[in-house]
Protein backbone atom coordinates (compact mmCIF):
# COMPACT_ATOMS: atom_id res chain seq x y z
CA UNK A 1 0.00 0.00 0.00
CA UNK A 2 1.25 3.44 -0.81
CA UNK A 3 -0.55 6.60 0.36
CA UNK A 4 0.03 10.22 1.15
CA UNK A 5 -1.25 10.79 4.71
CA UNK A 6 -3.59 13.75 5.16
CA UNK A 7 -4.29 14.21 1.41
CA UNK A 8 -7.17 13.12 -0.83
CA UNK A 9 -7.43 10.83 -2.70
CA UNK A 10 -5.61 7.94 -1.00
CA UNK A 11 -4.18 5.34 -3.32
CA UNK A 12 -4.69 1.79 -2.04
CA UNK A 13 -3.04 -1.25 -3.62
CA UNK A 14 -4.36 -3.97 -1.33
CA UNK A 15 -7.91 -4.92 -2.50
CA UNK A 16 -9.11 -5.82 1.00
CA UNK A 17 -8.08 -2.44 2.34
CA UNK A 18 -9.74 -0.80 -0.64
CA UNK A 19 -13.00 -2.57 0.18
CA UNK A 20 -12.73 -1.62 3.84
CA UNK A 21 -12.19 2.05 2.99
CA UNK A 22 -15.20 2.05 0.63
CA UNK A 23 -17.42 0.68 3.43
CA UNK A 24 -16.12 3.29 5.85
CA UNK A 25 -16.85 6.11 3.37
CA UNK A 26 -20.36 4.77 2.80
CA UNK A 27 -21.05 4.84 6.57
CA UNK A 28 -19.68 8.39 7.02
CA UNK A 29 -21.63 9.94 4.14
CA UNK A 30 -24.97 10.37 6.08
CA UNK A 31 -23.10 11.98 8.98
CA UNK A 32 -21.54 14.51 6.62
CA UNK A 33 -24.93 15.24 5.09
CA UNK A 34 -26.58 15.75 8.51
CA UNK A 35 -23.79 18.09 9.54
CA UNK A 36 -24.87 20.44 6.76
CA UNK A 37 -28.58 20.54 7.79
CA UNK A 38 -28.28 23.04 10.70
CA UNK A 39 -27.46 25.72 8.13
CA UNK A 40 -30.83 25.11 6.48
CA UNK A 41 -32.55 25.05 9.90
CA UNK A 42 -30.84 28.30 10.81
CA UNK A 43 -32.13 29.92 7.65
CA UNK A 44 -35.63 28.63 8.45
CA UNK A 45 -35.41 29.99 12.02
CA UNK A 46 -34.33 33.39 10.75
CA UNK A 47 -37.28 33.50 8.35
CA UNK A 48 -39.67 32.47 11.13
CA UNK A 49 -38.24 35.13 13.42
CA UNK A 50 -38.67 37.78 10.75
CA UNK A 51 -42.28 36.72 10.20
CA UNK A 52 -42.96 36.85 13.95
CA UNK A 53 -41.36 40.29 14.16
CA UNK A 54 -43.52 41.46 11.28
CA UNK A 55 -46.63 40.13 13.04
CA UNK A 56 -45.74 41.95 16.25
CA UNK A 57 -45.07 45.09 14.28
CA UNK A 58 -48.51 44.97 12.69
CA UNK A 59 -50.09 44.44 16.13
CA UNK A 60 -48.23 47.44 17.47
CA UNK A 61 -49.79 49.54 14.72
CA UNK A 62 -53.24 48.29 15.64
CA UNK A 63 -52.72 48.96 19.36
CA UNK A 64 -50.36 51.92 19.89
CA UNK A 65 -50.57 51.40 23.67
CA UNK A 66 -51.76 48.87 26.21
CA UNK A 67 -54.46 51.31 27.38
CA UNK A 68 -55.89 51.60 23.88
CA UNK A 69 -55.79 47.83 23.46
CA UNK A 70 -57.63 47.31 26.76
CA UNK A 71 -60.38 49.81 25.92
CA UNK A 72 -60.87 48.35 22.45
CA UNK A 73 -61.10 44.80 23.79
CA UNK A 74 -63.55 45.85 26.52
CA UNK A 75 -65.75 47.64 23.99
CA UNK A 76 -65.73 44.56 21.74
CA UNK A 77 -66.46 42.13 24.59
CA UNK A 78 -69.22 44.29 26.14
CA UNK A 79 -70.78 45.54 22.94
CA UNK A 80 -74.28 45.70 24.46
CA UNK A 81 -73.08 48.03 27.27
CA UNK A 82 -70.16 49.94 25.73
CA UNK A 83 -70.84 53.55 24.78
CA UNK A 84 -68.37 55.98 23.21
CA UNK A 85 -69.23 59.44 24.57
CA UNK A 86 -68.22 62.55 22.68
CA UNK A 87 -66.06 65.18 24.42
CA UNK A 88 -64.04 68.10 23.12
CA UNK A 89 -60.89 66.07 23.87
CA UNK A 90 -61.96 62.93 22.03
CA UNK A 91 -64.26 60.00 22.73
CA UNK A 92 -64.35 58.21 26.08
CA UNK A 93 -65.52 54.68 26.87
CA UNK A 94 -68.50 54.33 29.22
CA UNK A 95 -70.43 51.24 30.31
CA UNK A 96 -74.18 51.82 30.37
CA UNK A 97 -76.50 49.21 31.86
CA UNK A 98 -80.25 49.90 31.51
CA UNK A 99 -82.85 48.94 34.05
CA UNK A 100 -83.99 45.33 34.42
CA UNK A 101 -87.16 46.16 36.39
CA UNK A 102 -90.65 47.29 35.40
CA UNK A 103 -90.12 50.73 36.93
CA UNK A 104 -87.02 52.88 36.51
CA UNK A 105 -86.19 54.80 39.67
CA UNK A 106 -83.15 56.67 38.40
CA UNK A 107 -79.53 56.22 37.40
CA UNK A 108 -76.26 55.93 39.31
CA UNK A 109 -73.18 57.40 37.62
CA UNK A 110 -70.02 55.72 38.89
CA UNK A 111 -66.79 57.70 38.53
CA UNK A 112 -63.55 56.01 39.51
CA UNK A 113 -59.95 57.11 38.95
CA UNK A 114 -58.70 53.93 37.29
CA UNK A 115 -57.83 53.95 33.61
CA UNK A 116 -59.82 50.80 32.77
CA UNK A 117 -63.00 49.26 34.22
CA UNK A 118 -61.34 45.85 34.64
CA UNK A 119 -59.19 47.44 37.38
CA UNK A 120 -62.20 48.60 39.41
CA UNK A 121 -62.72 47.22 42.96
CA UNK A 122 -65.24 44.37 43.35
CA UNK A 123 -67.62 46.62 45.30
CA UNK A 124 -68.02 49.04 42.39
CA UNK A 125 -68.51 46.23 39.89
CA UNK A 126 -71.15 44.76 42.21
CA UNK A 127 -73.10 48.03 42.18
CA UNK A 128 -72.67 48.55 38.45
CA UNK A 129 -73.85 45.08 37.50
CA UNK A 130 -76.68 44.46 39.97
CA UNK A 131 -78.43 47.78 40.68
CA UNK A 132 -80.36 47.58 37.36
CA UNK A 133 -82.33 44.57 38.58
CA UNK A 134 -83.75 46.87 41.29
CA UNK A 135 -84.74 49.67 38.91
CA UNK A 136 -81.52 51.71 38.96
CA UNK A 137 -79.63 52.14 35.72
CA UNK A 138 -75.85 52.49 35.92
CA UNK A 139 -73.31 54.45 33.89
CA UNK A 140 -69.65 53.70 34.69
CA UNK A 141 -66.83 55.98 33.54
CA UNK A 142 -63.12 55.63 34.27
CA UNK A 143 -61.30 58.86 35.09
CA UNK A 144 -57.62 59.75 34.71
CA UNK A 145 -55.56 58.78 37.74
CA UNK A 146 -53.90 61.43 39.88
CA UNK A 147 -50.59 59.61 39.62
CA UNK A 148 -49.43 57.65 36.55
CA UNK A 149 -49.60 53.89 36.91
CA UNK A 150 -46.24 52.30 37.73
CA UNK A 151 -44.54 50.49 34.86
CA UNK A 152 -43.92 46.82 35.79
CA UNK A 153 -40.23 45.96 36.23
CA UNK A 154 -38.68 43.67 33.65
CA UNK A 155 -37.99 40.17 35.04
CA UNK A 156 -34.32 39.68 35.95
CA UNK A 157 -34.14 35.90 35.47
CA UNK A 158 -35.46 33.25 33.14
CA UNK A 159 -37.64 31.77 35.88
CA UNK A 160 -39.22 35.13 36.58
CA UNK A 161 -39.78 35.58 32.88
CA UNK A 162 -41.57 32.25 32.65
CA UNK A 163 -43.75 33.18 35.64
CA UNK A 164 -44.66 36.55 34.19
CA UNK A 165 -45.36 34.98 30.82
CA UNK A 166 -47.78 32.47 32.29
CA UNK A 167 -49.50 35.17 34.37
CA UNK A 168 -50.21 37.30 31.30
CA UNK A 169 -51.00 34.50 28.88
CA UNK A 170 -54.73 35.16 29.02
CA UNK A 171 -54.29 38.87 28.33
CA UNK A 172 -51.94 38.24 25.44
CA UNK A 173 -54.32 35.69 24.00
CA UNK A 174 -57.13 38.22 24.18
CA UNK A 175 -55.00 40.67 22.23
CA UNK A 176 -55.07 38.31 19.27
CA UNK A 177 -58.87 38.51 19.12
CA UNK A 178 -60.13 40.59 16.18
CA UNK A 179 -61.31 44.08 17.14
CA UNK A 180 -63.25 46.30 14.73
CA UNK A 181 -60.93 48.87 13.18
CA UNK A 182 -63.42 51.64 14.01
CA UNK A 183 -63.20 50.92 17.74
CA UNK A 184 -59.41 50.80 17.69
CA UNK A 185 -59.30 54.12 15.82
CA UNK A 186 -61.78 55.66 18.26
CA UNK A 187 -59.73 54.62 21.28
CA UNK A 188 -56.54 55.89 19.64
CA UNK A 189 -58.01 59.32 18.82
CA UNK A 190 -59.31 59.64 22.38
CA UNK A 191 -55.93 58.80 23.91
CA UNK A 192 -54.01 61.05 21.55
CA UNK A 193 -56.30 64.03 22.14
CA UNK A 194 -56.31 63.80 25.94
CA UNK A 195 -52.67 62.93 26.59
CA UNK A 196 -51.57 66.57 27.03
CA UNK A 197 -54.70 67.94 28.78
CA UNK A 198 -54.75 68.73 32.50
CA UNK A 199 -56.52 66.16 34.69
CA UNK A 200 -59.01 68.67 36.13
CA UNK A 201 -60.06 69.74 32.64
CA UNK A 202 -60.47 66.14 31.47
CA UNK A 203 -62.62 65.20 34.45
CA UNK A 204 -64.86 68.23 33.87
CA UNK A 205 -65.40 67.20 30.24
CA UNK A 206 -66.07 63.58 31.26
CA UNK A 207 -68.73 64.73 33.76
CA UNK A 208 -70.42 66.93 31.15
CA UNK A 209 -70.38 64.07 28.64
CA UNK A 210 -72.04 61.72 31.15
CA UNK A 211 -74.88 64.11 31.96
CA UNK A 212 -75.40 64.99 28.28
CA UNK A 213 -75.69 61.29 27.47
CA UNK A 214 -78.33 60.77 30.17
CA UNK A 215 -80.20 63.92 29.17
CA UNK A 216 -80.53 62.57 25.63
CA UNK A 217 -82.11 59.45 27.13
CA UNK A 218 -84.52 61.55 29.22
CA UNK A 219 -83.00 60.33 32.48
CA UNK A 220 -82.78 63.31 34.87
CA UNK A 221 -82.97 61.58 38.25
CA UNK A 222 -79.28 61.07 38.92
CA UNK A 223 -77.10 59.97 41.82
CA UNK A 224 -73.32 60.38 41.55
CA UNK A 225 -70.82 57.97 43.09
CA UNK A 226 -67.21 59.11 43.14
CA UNK A 227 -64.01 58.00 44.81
CA UNK A 228 -62.01 60.31 47.05
CA UNK A 229 -59.37 60.76 44.35
CA UNK A 230 -61.75 62.65 42.04
CA UNK A 231 -64.59 63.87 44.32
CA UNK A 232 -63.28 67.43 44.43
CA UNK A 233 -62.82 67.72 40.65
CA UNK A 234 -66.32 66.33 40.02
CA UNK A 235 -68.04 68.61 42.53
CA UNK A 236 -66.12 71.59 41.15
CA UNK A 237 -68.22 71.05 38.03
CA UNK A 238 -71.53 70.08 39.63
CA UNK A 239 -71.74 72.15 42.86
CA UNK A 240 -72.17 75.55 41.12
CA UNK A 241 -75.22 74.14 39.31
CA UNK A 242 -77.04 73.27 42.56
CA UNK A 243 -79.47 75.91 43.86
CA UNK A 244 -81.35 76.06 47.16
CA UNK A 245 -84.91 74.80 46.82
CA UNK A 246 -87.10 76.79 49.21
CA UNK A 247 -90.31 75.09 48.06
CA UNK A 248 -89.26 71.54 48.99
CA UNK A 249 -85.98 70.88 50.79
CA UNK A 250 -86.23 67.17 49.99
CA UNK A 251 -85.77 67.84 46.27
CA UNK A 252 -82.38 69.09 45.07
CA UNK A 253 -82.55 71.78 42.42
CA UNK A 254 -79.59 70.66 40.37
CA UNK A 255 -78.14 67.96 38.10
CA UNK A 256 -77.92 65.32 40.87
CA UNK A 257 -80.15 64.29 43.75
CA UNK A 258 -77.57 62.62 46.02
CA UNK A 259 -73.82 62.06 46.35
CA UNK A 260 -71.94 58.93 47.39
CA UNK A 261 -68.23 59.18 48.27
CA UNK A 262 -66.09 56.03 48.42
CA UNK A 263 -62.73 56.45 50.12
CA UNK A 264 -60.95 53.78 48.11
CA UNK A 265 -57.55 55.47 47.80
CA UNK A 266 -56.46 56.09 51.38
CA UNK A 267 -53.13 57.41 50.09
CA UNK A 268 -55.04 60.35 48.57
CA UNK A 269 -56.97 61.96 51.46
CA UNK A 270 -59.31 64.84 50.68
CA UNK A 271 -58.09 68.12 52.10
CA UNK A 272 -60.22 70.46 54.20
CA UNK A 273 -60.39 73.03 51.39
CA UNK A 274 -61.60 70.38 48.96
CA UNK A 275 -64.24 69.18 51.43
CA UNK A 276 -65.53 72.75 51.68
CA UNK A 277 -66.37 72.55 47.95
CA UNK A 278 -67.73 68.99 48.08
CA UNK A 279 -70.10 69.79 50.95
CA UNK A 280 -71.01 73.21 49.57
CA UNK A 281 -74.64 72.30 48.77
CA UNK A 282 -76.32 71.81 52.15
CA UNK A 283 -79.49 70.27 50.70
CA UNK A 284 -77.57 67.53 48.85
CA UNK A 285 -77.75 64.17 50.72
CA UNK A 286 -74.31 62.56 51.16
CA UNK A 287 -73.37 58.95 51.90
CA UNK A 288 -69.68 58.81 52.90
CA UNK A 289 -68.24 55.27 52.70
CA UNK A 290 -64.98 54.17 54.32
CA UNK A 291 -63.48 50.70 54.17
CA UNK A 292 -61.56 48.48 56.58
CA UNK A 293 -58.86 48.08 57.74
CA UNK A 294 -58.94 51.10 60.01
CA UNK A 295 -55.76 53.01 60.78
CA UNK A 296 -54.87 56.37 62.30
CA UNK A 297 -54.97 58.11 58.94
CA UNK A 298 -58.49 56.87 58.20
CA UNK A 299 -59.75 57.87 61.66
CA UNK A 300 -58.42 61.37 61.09
CA UNK A 301 -60.04 61.54 57.64
CA UNK A 302 -63.41 60.40 58.98
CA UNK A 303 -63.36 63.02 61.72
CA UNK A 304 -62.41 65.71 59.21
CA UNK A 305 -65.18 64.74 56.77
CA UNK A 306 -67.81 64.80 59.49
CA UNK A 307 -66.59 68.10 60.96
CA UNK A 308 -66.66 69.90 57.60
CA UNK A 309 -70.09 68.46 56.74
CA UNK A 310 -71.49 69.72 60.05
CA UNK A 311 -69.86 73.13 59.64
CA UNK A 312 -71.32 73.44 56.12
CA UNK A 313 -74.72 72.47 57.59
CA UNK A 314 -75.27 69.50 55.29
CA UNK A 315 -78.82 68.48 56.09
CA UNK A 316 -78.37 64.74 55.46
CA UNK A 317 -74.84 63.42 55.99
CA UNK A 318 -74.31 59.70 56.65
CA UNK A 319 -70.94 58.06 57.27
CA UNK A 320 -70.49 54.30 57.08
CA UNK A 321 -67.56 51.93 57.67
CA UNK A 322 -67.61 48.77 55.54
CA UNK A 323 -65.41 45.68 55.59
CA UNK A 324 -63.11 45.15 52.64
CA UNK A 325 -65.05 43.36 49.92
CA UNK A 326 -63.72 40.11 48.39
CA UNK A 327 -63.65 39.39 44.67
CA UNK A 328 -66.67 37.09 44.99
CA UNK A 329 -68.92 40.04 45.93
CA UNK A 330 -69.07 41.01 42.26
CA UNK A 331 -71.62 38.23 41.65
CA UNK A 332 -73.63 38.76 44.85
CA UNK A 333 -76.92 40.50 44.03
CA UNK A 334 -77.78 40.71 47.74
CA UNK A 335 -74.50 42.06 49.10
CA UNK A 336 -74.41 44.34 52.14
CA UNK A 337 -72.95 47.26 50.17
CA UNK A 338 -75.57 46.88 47.43
CA UNK A 339 -78.35 46.92 50.01
CA UNK A 340 -77.05 50.02 51.80
CA UNK A 341 -76.46 52.02 48.63
CA UNK A 342 -79.81 50.99 47.15
CA UNK A 343 -81.61 51.90 50.39
CA UNK A 344 -79.93 55.31 50.49
CA UNK A 345 -80.88 56.10 46.88
CA UNK A 346 -84.40 54.75 47.32
CA UNK A 347 -84.96 57.07 50.27
CA UNK A 348 -83.19 60.17 48.97
CA UNK A 349 -83.43 60.16 45.21
CA UNK A 350 -85.95 57.80 43.59
CA UNK A 351 -88.24 59.68 41.20
CA UNK A 352 -87.80 63.05 42.89
CA UNK A 353 -87.35 64.95 39.62
CA UNK A 354 -90.88 63.93 38.62
CA UNK A 355 -92.20 65.46 41.81
CA UNK A 356 -90.30 68.70 41.13
CA UNK A 357 -91.61 68.88 37.56
CA UNK A 358 -95.24 68.41 38.66
CA UNK A 359 -94.89 71.24 41.17
CA UNK A 360 -93.57 73.55 38.47
CA UNK A 361 -96.53 72.69 36.23
CA UNK A 362 -99.04 73.50 39.01
CA UNK A 363 -97.42 76.87 39.57
Assembly state: single chain
The number of distinct β-strands equals 8
Low-confidence stretches: 1-8, 157-177, 354-363
- Mean pLDDT, to the nearest integer, reads 77
Strand order within the widest beta sheet? 1-2-4-3-5-6-7-8
**Would you list the SSEs in sequence order as H and E?**
HHHEEEHEHHHHEHEHEHEHH
Proportion of β residues?
5-15%
Indicate the overall shape.
elongated
Helix content: 40-55%
Would you write up a description of this structure?
- The longest helix is centred in the first third of the chain and has 26 residues.
- Helices cover 47% and strands 14% of the residues.
- It is an alpha/beta fold and 363 residues long.
- Helix 3 packs across helix 7 and helix 9 runs parallel beside helix 10.
- Strand 1 and strand 2 form a beta hairpin.
- The termini are far apart.
- Strands 1-2-4-3-5-6-7-8 form an 8-stranded mixed sheet, with helices on both faces.
- The chain has 13 helices and 8 strands.
